[in-house]
Known about the structure:
The chain is mainly alpha-helical. It has a domain at about 5-10 and about 75-200. About 55% of the residues lie in helices and about 10% in strands. It has 8 helices and 5 strands, in the order αββαααααααβββ. The chain has a 3-stranded antiparallel β-sheet. The protein has a two-stranded antiparallel sheet with strand order 4-5. Helix 4 crosses helix 8, helix 5 packs across helix 6 and helix 5 crosses helix 7. The radius of gyration is 18 Å and the shape is globular.
Amino acid sequence: MHRRRTAIALSAALAAAPLLTACGGTPHPGAAAVVGGERITVAQLESRVNEVRAAQRAAAPDDAQYEQTVARTSSLTRDTLHSLVLDRVLDRAAQDAGVSVTRRDVDRMRTSLVQQAGGTKELQSAWLQQYGVAPARLDDSLHTEIEAQKLAAALGADMNTTDGKAAFWKAMSGASRELRVDLNPRYGTWDVQRSSRVDAKTPWVKEVTTPAPQAA
């Protein structure tokens, strides 16, 4: 199976690179985050998480396997919010660089990956398991893949080199400053040095997700 090479995947690997610059304010009421003055609402976040949980439930052969999957992906809500914010930052960085992604780009990548995976269901299953992407969001995720690749190309950034990675994340950092990313404290904060969302020290807060409905 292919390896994912995008802004989302790279965020964990580039802990020493500059990335998101957060402003120190309080998000609007009901928001999980505010990016560029636009809210990512708690309801939107929970809906995305529940999509993944429902897909995981459908893919699990029994309750025990599903419970193991939930335990293994216990940070799904926070990880999903991280991805939602980074998607918006990437969109702005791509816009600033004059980069765009077409429907044809997405179709071409999906066709290639389906062939590599051995079928559409196999590809959807792989991305659900590896990246927490619900089948219905596969094309959105492919769009992000392509956008990150095109941004790197537009910047002349070879992501296999330290200098290339630095150039990519410098563009992301600039886009983040423009957007003034603000995270709801219940989901943590943006750590510029670590280039990642950092959990707030609130042990009394538990991550709760609505259980996915079981098939009849």
